[in-house]
Design a protein that fits this description.
About 5% of the residues lie in helices and about 55% in strands. It is mainly β and about 280 residues long. It has a single domain (about 5-270), classed as Sandwich (Jelly Rolls). Strands 1, 13, 14, 17, 18, 19, 20, 21 and 22 form a nine-stranded antiparallel beta sheet that branches. It has a seven-stranded antiparallel beta sheet with strand order 2-3-4-11-6-9-12, with no helix packed on it. Strands 5-10-7-8 form a four-stranded antiparallel beta sheet, with no helix packed on it. The radius of gyration is 18 Å and the shape is globular. It starts with 6 loop residues before the first strand and ends in a 10-residue tail after the last helix.
Length: about 280
């Protein structure tokens, strides 16, 4: 017997400014047990370079993973491990900060820039693991048919027997970019133990008695099946699920630990130059 996921809450992405002055919309950014292990989802996008060109200059992270998924435009990355790269349309940057990394993300000028950044928490036992960085090219991300008129790009996790290119992730996430034609019913099987959400960024979508419009995020209940129907414009949305950690969270800006003492220590180490625990790549 299947248990269909329901809508617990609908959140509207709100305008905010981050980095050196990047204008974006935040779908959520708080500690919410219903979204554990996820902490934040930002939707950035503009045709005006003044909204994003100042970018995100050098800054630290510890205790989390940051996942950047590009729809349009390009972002250049550099970090304290010596990684350098540019992600473009359809590419993903999956960065595990672990014990500490310092990086910058600087957009390149283009006709349009759009994408998402998701933060996923790390469990206490892995917060001080060696940092790692992975560029995932669009060409390596498989696309599956969920039903006639509905496809999904599988960034992480497994759906319809197809596994995404990002594997060996501690919270065992499912990350799909789902594209649905006009007035199509879609059923997706989701691990019943995982927390999940939908973020709609194109068209409209119905879940039971709820209707989602662009920039709506739906926090979902537990269950092993999700049933949605696209509206007259079709729909495109992110479906993200992950195994909850159920651990205390001490969060200060770009650093997320389990206790305030750990948080204070991280910032103290950043100030005195002992923040980085692992050597730069040679």
């Amino acid at each position: 017997m299947t248990d269909e996921r329901k809508v617990l809450e609908i959140k509207q992405a709100r305008p905010t400014t981050e980095g050196a002055g990047v204008r974006l919309r935040r779908a959520f950014g708080s500690v919410d047990p219903r979204l554990d292990p996820f902490l934040l989802l930002d939707h950035f996008g503009s045709e005006n370079p003044d909204d994003y060109m100042k970018g995100f200059p050098w800054h630290p992270h510890r205790g989390i993973e940051t996942i950047t998924y590009m729809l349009d435009g390009e972002v250049e990355h550099q970090d304290s491990l010596g990684n350098k790269g540019v992600i473009g349309p359809g590419d993903v940057q999956w960065m595990t900060a672990g014990s500490g990394i310092i990086h910058q993300e600087m957009p390149r000028r283009s006709e349009n820039l759009e994408g998402f950044q998701l933060w996923s928490n790390l469990p206490a036992k892995d917060k001080m693991m060696p940092p790692r960085y992975r560029d995932v090219l669009a060409a390596t991300i498989p696309e599956v048919t969920l039903s006639p008129g509905a496809t999904a790009k599988v960034i992480a996790g497994t759906i319809s027997g197809t596994q995404g290119p990002v594997t060996d992730i501690i919270t065992d996430p499912l990350y799909l970019d789902v594209n649905v034609d006009v007035d199509v019913n879609v059923n997706v099987n989701v691990d019943e133990e995982k927390n999940s959400f939908i973020y709609l960024f194109r068209g409209s979508l119905s879940l039971a008695d709820h209707r989602l419009e662009p920039r709506h995020l739906a926090v979902l209940s537990k269950g092993d099946r999700l049933s949605v129907k696209s509206g007259p414009e079709g729909a495109r949305f992110l479906l993200v699920a992950g195994r909850p950690l159920g651990e205390p969270v001490a969060w200060g800006g770009p650093i997320v630990m389990n206790t305030q003492e750990e948080l204070y220590k991280a910032f103290e180490e950043y100030e005195n130059g002992t923040f980085l625990k692992h050597a730069k790549k040679k």
